[in-house]
Amino acid sequence: MTPPTPTPGIHHVTCIAGDPQRNMDFWVETLGLRLVKRSINQDDPGTYHFFFADAEGTPGTSMTFFPWEDMKQGKVGSGQVSRTAFRVPEGSLDYWEDRFEEYGVDYDERVERFGETVLPFRDPDGLPVELVAVEIGEDDPTVPWTEFVPEDAAIRGFHSVTLWLADPEPTMDLLRTMGLEEVGTEQAQGDTPGDERTRFAADGPVGKYVDVLPTIQGGRQGHGTVHHVAFQTPTDEDQRAMREAVQSAGLRPTQQIDRHWFRSVYFREFGGILFELATRGPGYTSDEPLDDLGGRLVLPGKFEDRREEIEANLTDVTIPTADTVEADD
After folding, report:
1. Residue 192: its pLDDT value, please?
2. What is the rounded CA–CA span in Å between residue 65 and residue 52?
3. Whole-angstrom distance, CA of residue 209 vs CA of residue 187
4. Does the residue 123 lie in any domain?
5. Who contacts 323 (Cβ-Cβ below 8 Å, separation ≥6)?
6. What total of structural domains would you count in the chain?
7. Residue 299's domain spans which residues?
8. What element of type H or E holds 242?
């Protein structure tokens, strides 16, 4: 079988939150990401689906959330994405520590990892997140959003995800099948339970790293955990080839599912983590102008006919803007 086109890296990461307004306030105001899409969980239309990204919703920048208010607190453990890391410009971590102090964000001391400086913190639901200081080139595809955070500190898409796995070897083989290359190992630091961290790299400029750590620590899905991680398969042809490769590796991918802004294939990798393959298009501007992204509740396809019913069951939320936040102060 012809190997599939390697994935360029992470497309988006989807997580579970609790209170939707608290989630919105943190990711927009505190972290300075743009709400590029306000929609619903297409498998559970009584729940929001928020998409936070760079100024244009560039692939590789979207952190998305299902705020399931009634779900219990989760616990990160084996068979989960344990950390999601974002890129920030070199020299900006002092700014972020000051900002975390101002906003009361729970953060840890910086650590060095593969020659880069990492600032770990947690969102209000306890989700483990990291900022990694990197050089941002002039040709970088991400577009900083500067409503709350200046350009020289703004988050510039994903850096990496860390996978906790009881038996890492089959997943490491899968990552190689997907076109990532092993680029190094080092002793794990901080609160990670594994002895050795193995890093894999894709060839794209954003969200290119996947770190693997062995652990048998038990976990459970809930608030403050990752629901799934999506990898870029830019075209339908790329996705078909990757789906076939995944299936040939012994996994059970779904058929393609239309998610309105991209087309998706899902499967659980060998350790139980839900992976998604996502196309590059049509993109977030396919149903809203760039200037108005996130401004209204978008109900894909068949759900528009149920707008009145769906809106009645959703908690009202207010999107923070610099003007409204300043007025409240």
Report:
1. 53
2. 8
3. 17
4. yes
5. none
6. 1
7. 10-328
8. helix 236-248
Entry pTM: 0.96
- Tens-digit pLDDT profile for residues 214-233: 998 999 999 999 999 999 99
Cβ(20)–Cβ(31) under 8 Å?
no
DSSP 214: E
What does the DSSP assignment read for 9-35? Answer: SEEEEEEEES-HHHHHIIIIIIT--EE
Output the pLDDT for position 314. 96
Above pLDDT 70, what percent of the chain? 97
Q: Among residues 241, 38, 7, 33, which one has the least CA distance to residue 144?
A: 33
Question: Whose CA is closest to 280, among 2, 3, 7?
Answer: 7
Whole-number Å distance between alpha carbons of 73 and 124 = 11
Q: 13-28: per-residue pLDDT in tens? A: 999 999 999 999 999 9
* Residue 302 confidence (pLDDT): 87
CATH classification at residue 321: 3.10.180.10
